Amino acid sequence: MGYSRRAPYLFLAPALFLIGVFFFFPVLAAFLMSFTDFDIYGLSDFNLVRLIGLQNYINLLQDHLFWTALKNTFYFVFIGGPLSIVVSLGAALLINSKLVKLKGFFRLVYFTPVVATLVSVAIVWRYIYHPRFGLLNYALDFFGIEAIDWLGDPFWAMPSIIILAVWKNFGYNMIIFIAGLQNIPEELYEAAKIDGANFLSQFKSITLPMLAPTMLFVGIITMIGYFQLFAEPYIMTQGGPANSTLSIVLYMYEEGFRWWNMGYSASLAFVLFIIIFIGTLIQLRVQKSGYEG
Amino acid sequence: MKRTHKIILYATLFVTAAITLSPIVWMVSVSLMPLGESSTYPPPFIPTEVTFEHYFNLFDRLNLARYLLNSTIISVSVTALSLIINSMAGFAFAKYRFRGRDKLFRFLLAGMVIPAQVTMLPLFLMLNKMGFINTYIGVMIPGMATIFGIFLMRQYMLSIPDSLIDAARIDGASDFMVYWRLVIPLCKPIFVTLAIFTFMGTWNDFLWPLIVMTDDTMYTLPVALANLMGEHVQDTELMMAGSVLTILPVMLVFMVLQKYYIRGIMMGSGKG
């Protein structure tokens, strides 16, 4: 093709302009901001902003709230992420089973929380976790488990948020896993059955290896998404109790948009970006070595 | 053997379905209870008498119509604009050969690792200088052109045969006419897919409208709901009614168009 030489540039112009000016430029600007003392005075007069080199990053390392937020975010990502992937895979295997009819029905039901507005479901779950009138403690009472102060106890607050996140998100990855499972050739399982392999050994020797590329994709998008934890603690706990659910993005929001310490907040945003970037590289590397090994 | 297997399978599926749906069913049910009924023990699952008073309250006293309007205007506008802008870019990437095309496309894809939160501080300052804080356009700007949208459009348009486009050219159609009259009608399914993704993403978004909308008449539904929680945390039934109203529009869109939404997930994961 290539009818008119100008045409492709004209078609691209609006999108590239918007993405360039309102995405890539702010990324660069945030990088620069993280080396300044941009604060509420800078907001009123840009001339008051000074370059302070690495000072924000040095302060970060000495800020116990940053380390708390980092620890909490890692807890959420490395416990909640794998847990939600396991539940997604389990649901996909169940629905994909040849014995099951009503596949469309179950798929729709399991997917419903994915579509629901996060703020709304966070509010709903806040009441479900109520220590006296909440559904969860009522249900646990049946099994003789004593009432837990889910969101009021620093030990249970983050697990509560993880349970909500798994419930909300598992349907998304489930859809991707179902597609991955359907791409596995049936002959592989038939050959394995002839060899007398049971379900578990079929799962280990066929399903998991064949799902490896899907797993990589799911692992990366889940990790990126989970690192951005914000609305759940904002709505349910405001980062408490005792900062046990303060996440990096929540801390960034508070520093930047509540206290207007925008230079410091930008350094938090960049640390988050670097962590996500390294995490993505590690997953790609592990996957690659898996293929070669 | 196979029979027990089947029973266990279905039991697990139905129990999971019940657990998945119960928070949503409970939300709807409590929203219909008289004030205070849900805060009793044991927690009731079904209202003793059905009342719509909380829904009326939300509209009469708590300005809900305004938030509904804000959310609708923003989501519909972002959706319409993003369809045009992303499809034009996708068309250029899919059906033209120009210098640096593949490099540019790879560069954009690499940009998808950058979390949006990184851009928010400078973007806020820029919009502030431009006078876009507290405006619809301020909330809309980051959603109007997206890398994911361009990617979806390009992938779909790659499947349009070049011969069709060449034939239109021979008939004298201009580049824009080819895009408008030929490519867009062929791309209806992917337009629907991107439309639902954008509509739901914008409707459900929280952090960005929370930052941009500082005046409470400009709040979107999720921001208004989070704000309402501050004053009405004791009014469980009222908060549930607000949650139902916030979720309802996206649920309806999804129910009607779910197969297009699923297609988007598949294409995003490279299985479309």
Defining traits:
heterodimer, A: 293 residues, mainly alpha, MetI-like fold, 14 helices, 74% helix, globular, B: mainly alpha
Descriptive account of the structure:
- The complex is a heterodimer of chains A (293) and B (272).
- In chain A, helix 8 runs antiparallel to helix 11 and helix 11 (212-227) runs antiparallel to helix 14 (262-292).
- Chain A has a single domain (62-292), classed as MetI-like fold (Orthogonal Bundle).
- Chain A has helices at 7-33, 40-44, 55-61, 64-96, 103-115, 118-128, 135-142, 154-182, 186-194, 199-210, 212-227, 231-236, 248-258, 262-292.
- Chain A has 14 helices and no strands.
- Chain B starts with a helix and ends with a helix.
- Chain B has helices at 2-31, 53-60, 64-95, 101-110, 117-130, 136-144, 147-157, 162-170, 175-186, 188-204, 207-212, 221-232, 236-268.
- Chain B is built from 13 helices and no strands.
- At the A-B interface, helix 1, helix 4, helix 5, helix 6 and helix 8 of A face helix 1, helix 3, helix 5, helix 6 and helix 8 of B.
Set down the secondary structure blueprint:
The complex is a heterodimer of chains A (293) and B (272).
Chain A lengths: L6 H27 L6 H5 L10 H7 L2 H33 L6 H13 L2 H11 L6 H8 L11 H29 L3 H9 L4 H12 L1 H16 L3 H6 L11 H11 L3 H31 L1
Chain B lengths: L1 H30 L21 H8 L3 H32 L5 H10 L6 H14 L5 H9 L2 H11 L4 H9 L4 H12 L1 H17 L2 H6 L8 H12 L3 H33 L4
- Write the CATH architecture name of chain B: Orthogonal Bundle
In whole angstroms, the N-to-C terminal distance of chain A is 43 Å
Helix content of chain B: over 70%
Enumerate how many helices of chain A there are, as a single number: 14
The most extensive interface between chains reads:
A-B, 90 and 96 residues
Number of extended strands of chain B = 0
Q: Please give the radius of gyration of chain A in angstroms.
A: 24 Å
CATH topology annotation of chain A:
MetI-like fold
Overall mean pLDDT score of chain B? Answer: 93
At CATH level 3, the topology of chain B is: MetI-like fold
The description of the largest β-sheet of chain A is: none
